[in-house]
Design goal:
Nucleotidyltransferase, domain 5; binds 5'-O-[(R)-(carboxyoxy)(hydroxy)phosphoryl]adenosine; about 325 residues; binds zinc ion; about 20% strand; globular
């Protein structure tokens, strides 16, 4: 079995996965959303202190499995340095105390493996990764063969939802709140510019739509509930139209047979629906993670670690590094 630890942002999570069967035997997660909500975003120092309390609680629950471990895996990049360090410190201690190999896991790779929990991998695949920290299209040919096709030039998709919610005083995380609110709004009420619409660039940008929302919020004070819903619906429409427009260019060029959407924001139903149409149009299979594995969790880290274990991607527990910002997958 592999014990996996996730603490890259505001979720403390531990999982136990059986190597031979890929079966998820144990999975617990403590989210800190409520603690950060009053600040409208994640406060790194607070997140770090909460991981220091919550990770040992989860490890205590995983105790019955600790004598059957073959390796320990931990997310060590990218993420918030002070929160990554909490998980890494626990993994180092376990690895040294029990003499187990230590597997460093790249957070974005773990999101890709959220598709394969208790399943075999499907490669090659084109993957759209939309989370709070990243917005990318990836050409995934194997565990060690991942190329970035497109990336955001400024804000990420999920982050733009968080900022829109914050501007309207709606709480954190903004994604689910804005999605729910958008259902009650008119997406045609406030037409917003679609970023890079007339540019041949294969890249994403969310700062322009965010600014458009800021101007609308300022111009419509005090905001009534219907105006909030109309802003949410108009924003979500433009944000998804941008994802679709650039993805369509990539589809026309690469003609993928298998396409997936992963990351916390892949739980958005409007995104899922829009891409389901695009995939039908391009005769391509759409793969989505179970809703319970879209946001950060240790189950995806554990599944990713099984492939890393077979490839012997081990690191020295005394010198494992934490890399908060990296686009390098290796
Ligand atoms: O992958 P994740 O849990 O953490 C990071 O790696 O960043 O993604 C969290 C992000 C947050 O920005 C959150 O607002 C966004 O995913 N998100 C959503 C939805 N659910 C979560 N964005 C849009 N629609 C949603 N339903
Ligand atoms: Zn994530």
């Amino acid at each position: 079995m592999i014990l996996s630890i996730e603490s890259s942002c505001d979720d403390s999570s531990i999982a136990i996965t059986e190597i031979a069967t890929k079966k998820l035997l144990f999975h617990r997660k403590i989210s800190q959303e409520r603690e950060h909500a009053k600040y409208g975003g994640v406060v790194p120092e607070l997140a770090s202190r909460l991981h220091a309390v919550d990770l040992p609680k989860l490890l205590e629950e995983a105790k019955p499995y600790l004598n059957d471990l073959k390796a320990v895996a931990v997310t060590n990049a990218p993420g918030l340095s002070v929160t990554l360090l909490e998980g890494v410190a626990m993994a180092q201690a376990l690895s040294i105390a029990k003499g187990l190999p230590l597997i460093p896991i790249h957070h974005l790779k773990a999101h890709i493996y959220s598709l394969f929990i208790e399943k075999e991998v499907i490669f090659p695949m084109v993957v759209l990764l939309i989370s709070g920290g990243h917005t990318m299209v990836l050409d995934v040919k194997g565990y060690d063969d991942i190329t970035i096709i497109a990336s955001t030039m400024d804000d990420s998709f999920g982050e733009s939802f968080d900022k829109v919610a914050k501007m309207m005083g709606l709480g954190y995380p903004g994604g689910p709140i804005v999605e729910q609110l958008a259902k009650k709004g008119d997406p045609e009420k406030f037409p917003m510019p679609i970023p890079l619409q007339h540019s041949s660039k294969i890249a994403f940008s969310y700062s322009g739509i965010k600014n458009a929302v800021r101007l609308l919020v300022e111009a419509n004070q005090p905001l009534d509930e219907q105006t909030q819903a109309d802003i949410a619906a108009s924003f979500q429409k433009a944000a998804i139209a941008h994802l679709l427009q650039k993805s369509k260019k990539i589809f026309s060029h690469l003609r993928p047979k298998d396409f997936a959407i992963v990351g916390g924001a892949s739980a958005n139903m409007a995104v899922r629906e829009a891409f389901s149409h695009l995939c039908t149009q391009f005769d391509c299979r759409l793969h989505l993670a179970d809703l319970s594995y879209c946001a950060d969790n240790a189950a995806m880290v554990g599944r990713c670690a099984i492939d890393a274990y077979h490839l012997k991607h081990f690191t020295d527990p005394l010198t494992i590094e934490v890399t908060p910002r990296t686009e390098n997958f290796f």
